[in-house]
Amino acid sequence: MNKIIKNVRINGHLSAIVIEDGRIAGVGASVAAWPGAEIIDAKGLTALPGLVDVHVHFREPGLTEKETIRSGSAAAAAGGFTTVLAMPNVLPVVDQEGRLKEQLALNEEKGLVKVGQIAAITEDLTSNRLTKLAELKAIGAAAFSNDGHGIQEAQTMLTALTAVKKVNGLLTVHLEDNGLANGGVVDPKAGERLGLKGLTALSESTQLARDIELVRATQARYHVAHVSSKQSVDLIRQAKLAGLPITAEVSPHHLFLDESMVQADDPNYKMNPPLRSKEDRQALIAGLLDGTIDLIASDHAPHTADDKAGSMADCAFGIVGLETTFALVYEHFVASGLVDLETAVAWLNQKPIEAFGLQNAGQLRAGDPADLVLIDEKTTFTIDPKDFHSKGKNTPFAGQKVHGLVVTTFVNGEAVFSKD
């Protein structure tokens, strides 16, 4: 059914949106009425383009006790995300053509939002045997990643970059030198305080320095996942000034938390890469503001309560983020007056679309898919894991009061989430 969303604010102005056959037919204060259309009165609400998250873990198949495509995509919709890209570290790993076809079909069947699929760079995520990148891209791989594992051999990374350049693909890279990481679980400063093994930021920045030289040699498109350190921000800035085809993302937990806030051996503060120093966090914010870092991605990593029980020494890495990302970004950047809403939304819509070359994500323009979200900017609410649609409840942000409440999310013009 065609729809007209009236009395809605867009970029600070009262406006209306006409939706026809799943696409936006018009946006503006003077859009024409549509006979027989469903009228949605959005008085007091703001319309945004559907948010895009290029880094999520949905765990299906193989790990459905943690999350399913249905529960993960429900979490995405509740957080205002209409397009997400899922990482390949499910069981079996998405590292072969048949598995990618099956995964894409599963995403389409069970996803409440648009669930794109990233395929592995190497077989099993940890080997040096390259996957068939050209064939995987032709089938529909949105990008390639071994997320959760750094590529240890420089020759393997060079071969991957050379191959991905040939097909104009994109590598989205988890940076971690295993020797330097040395089994660490938290930043070394937190480790000293809590009696836990430290994971140095050099594990990230040294692999990045290596890869920048390989990108310089190949000119392949390269995306840095979950940047966590000042050294990495500096390296990315230099690479961009040199004109290299590098983009980067940062996750909300690295923007809004640091190692000094880890006051106890609390598994909800364990993620990879770990929370770094206040100086690192400030460098990440500065890098986002000056464009060194292109976008924000949640790294939504749901786990069972048992997975996150006990000590950080041996529990699982990762926290959930799809249902908290927008509100945290709104609270810390927009409500604080640091940036305007349009800038914040660009980090969560325009920039990821551009970096990953996404073709089917709406940007709230006439002719685009009607992927959009209605938010309440005034209401304060408290982050409560009991309200999450995700199976994962693992978050360090529980109890925080925030603004930016998602009220309704539309995908192709159909409501996939409505706040009760």
From TrEMBL:
<feature type="binding site">
    <location>
        <position position="89"/>
    </location>
    <ligand>
        <name>substrate</name>
    </ligand>
</feature>
<dbReference type="InterPro" id="IPR050138">
    <property type="entry name" value="DHOase/Allantoinase_Hydrolase"/>
</dbReference>
<protein>
    <recommendedName>
        <fullName>Dihydroorotase</fullName>
        <ecNumber>3.5.2.3</ecNumber>
    </recommendedName>
</protein>
<feature type="binding site">
    <location>
        <position position="174"/>
    </location>
    <ligand>
        <name>Zn(2+) 2</name>
    </ligand>
</feature>
<dbReference type="Pfam" id="PF12890">
    <property type="entry name" value="DHOase"/>
</dbReference>
<comment type="pathway">
    <text>Pyrimidine metabolism; UMP biosynthesis via de novo pathway; (S)-dihydroorotate from bicarbonate: step 3/3.</text>
</comment>
<feature type="binding site">
    <location>
        <position position="147"/>
    </location>
    <ligand>
        <name>Zn(2+) 1</name>
    </ligand>
</feature>
<feature type="binding site">
    <location>
        <position position="57"/>
    </location>
    <ligand>
        <name>Zn(2+) 1</name>
    </ligand>
</feature>
<dbReference type="InterPro" id="IPR011059">
    <property type="entry name" value="Metal-dep_hydrolase_composite"/>
</dbReference>
<feature type="binding site">
    <location>
        <begin position="317"/>
        <end position="318"/>
    </location>
    <ligand>
        <name>substrate</name>
    </ligand>
</feature>
<dbReference type="InterPro" id="IPR002195">
    <property type="entry name" value="Dihydroorotase_CS"/>
</dbReference>
<feature type="binding site">
    <location>
        <position position="299"/>
    </location>
    <ligand>
        <name>Zn(2+) 1</name>
    </ligand>
</feature>
<keyword id="KW-0665">Pyrimidine biosynthesis</keyword>
<feature type="binding site">
    <location>
        <position position="303"/>
    </location>
    <ligand>
        <name>substrate</name>
    </ligand>
</feature>
<dbReference type="InterPro" id="IPR004722">
    <property type="entry name" value="DHOase"/>
</dbReference>
<feature type="binding site">
    <location>
        <position position="272"/>
    </location>
    <ligand>
        <name>substrate</name>
    </ligand>
</feature>
<dbReference type="InterPro" id="IPR032466">
    <property type="entry name" value="Metal_Hydrolase"/>
</dbReference>
<feature type="domain" description="Dihydroorotase catalytic">
    <location>
        <begin position="48"/>
        <end position="232"/>
    </location>
</feature>
<keyword id="KW-0862">Zinc</keyword>
<feature type="binding site">
    <location>
        <position position="147"/>
    </location>
    <ligand>
        <name>Zn(2+) 2</name>
    </ligand>
</feature>
<feature type="active site">
    <location>
        <position position="299"/>
    </location>
</feature>
<feature type="binding site">
    <location>
        <begin position="57"/>
        <end position="59"/>
    </location>
    <ligand>
        <name>substrate</name>
    </ligand>
</feature>
<comment type="function">
    <text>Catalyzes the reversible cyclization of carbamoyl aspartate to dihydroorotate.</text>
</comment>
<comment type="similarity">
    <text>Belongs to the metallo-dependent hydrolases superfamily. DHOase family. Class I DHOase subfamily.</text>
</comment>
<feature type="binding site">
    <location>
        <position position="226"/>
    </location>
    <ligand>
        <name>Zn(2+) 2</name>
    </ligand>
</feature>
<keyword id="KW-0378">Hydrolase</keyword>
<dbReference type="InterPro" id="IPR024403">
    <property type="entry name" value="DHOase_cat"/>
</dbReference>
<feature type="binding site">
    <location>
        <position position="55"/>
    </location>
    <ligand>
        <name>Zn(2+) 1</name>
    </ligand>
</feature>
<keyword id="KW-0479">Metal-binding</keyword>
